[in-house]
Amino acid sequence: MLRIPCIVSIVAGSAALFAYPVAAQDAPSPSAGPSEKASVQPLSVKPLRGPAADATATTVKPRAPAFADAGSEWITPGKNQAHTRYSALTEINAGNVANMRAVSTFSTGLSAGHEAAPVVVGSTLYFVTPYPNVVYALDLGQPGFPMKWKFEPKVVAASQGMACCDIVNRGVVFDNGRIFFNTLDGQTYALNAETGEEIWRRQLADIKQGETMTMAPLVAKDKVIVGNSGGEMGVRGWAQALHVATGETAWKAYSTGPDEEVLIGAEYEPFYDQEKGENLGVTTWPTDMWKTGGGTVWGWISHDPDLNLVYYGTSNPGPWNSSVRPGANKYTAGIFARDVDTGQARWFYQMSPHDVSDYDGVNENIL
Fold first, then answer.
1. Could you confirm whether 232 is annotated as catalytic?
2. Which candidate in 194, 222, 339, 358 is catalytic?
3. Most C-beta atoms within 10 A of its C-beta, which of 90, 239, 357, 366?
């Protein structure tokens, strides 16, 4: 099997693999074990200054949690459940990165934005294109990295007109021999990672209501967590958990509306007072505007298996004209923590109450 340390770069229209030949001194020693066994290194944080420095005598060095180490594989767009985007592999380093050169390119033939980070499992690289959301599997174990298979979903062409901000897709996720991804017209697919064969498919979003799906799923335990896009189109944001085996819905949590539909109950214990109160997803909006209030879940999801929680951000409130929606517009432009099994909210923090600048809150939550 051919084994070449490489970096993958995906831009509009093509994917390029950059690699360098492994010299004898670069190759890992057999006695040392494979480099993928290297542990996750702690993040370095600068010492505190000012009054805070007087309160602590040591430098804080936060560490990535143990579940963040996925070894040599890159199984989600953020690499792992903690979304660290950090690899402990050492074969490409400051001493040899200047020697890297392009060894292979692969054209998708598309000019739209390519925002999907590839995932690598074993010797196979997987990625999904923007509309029409074709999934490719490339064999990194063979010279030239030939295509193992491709899957072409049937995506409704009209969905292109519903996408506010390009017809992008943010990636696939691998779990237990399966590839999961979403399509622009609101479908979630599960594929056999070895053959590309469809295992199941679910229609979740409705483009006739302005909904699309552009986010990358995340598998947490036996659930696939997905969300919708379209906060600019008068939709109501939601996150939904599907059973990995069947694609059937386990729970669905809206970002706006009454507590019962936002899945806020007895387990909800927010830290800040402004997040406390009944039915804030209704009372922080003018009458009925929460029904089209945005708060979509088009970004990334993290999972802490120790706490049994998933974390995700919600998008801007709608409409953009903030003068017609006075109030804090809960639960948009913030972060939810939810129980993986039930979807019940544990806490919420709104970063931009009454967001007037389209800041959103869908950025990665790094654990």
1. yes
2. 358
3. 239
Residue of 91, 232, 304, 364 with catalytic role:
232
For residue 30, cis peptide bond before it (omega within 30 degrees of 0): no
316 is catalytic: yes
For 254-287, write each residue's pLDDT tens digit.
999 999 999 999 999 999 999 999 999 999 999 9
> Residue 282, class by beta-carbon neighbours within 10 Å (0-12 exposed, 13-18 middle, 19+ buried)?
buried
User: Amino acid letter at 289?
Assistant: M
Residue-wise pLDDT tens digits, 298-311: 999 999 999 999 99
DSSP state of 212: B
Question: Is the pTM value of this prediction over 0.90?
Answer: no
Helix (H, G, I), strand (E, B) or coil at 23: coil
d(CA 313, CA 296): 8
Are 230 and 167 within 8 A, CB to CB? no
β-strand partners of 302: 311
Question: Exposed/middle/buried for 208, CB within 10 Å: 0-12, 13-18, 19+?
Answer: exposed
Q: Which candidate in 133, 316, 329, 365 is catalytic?
A: 316
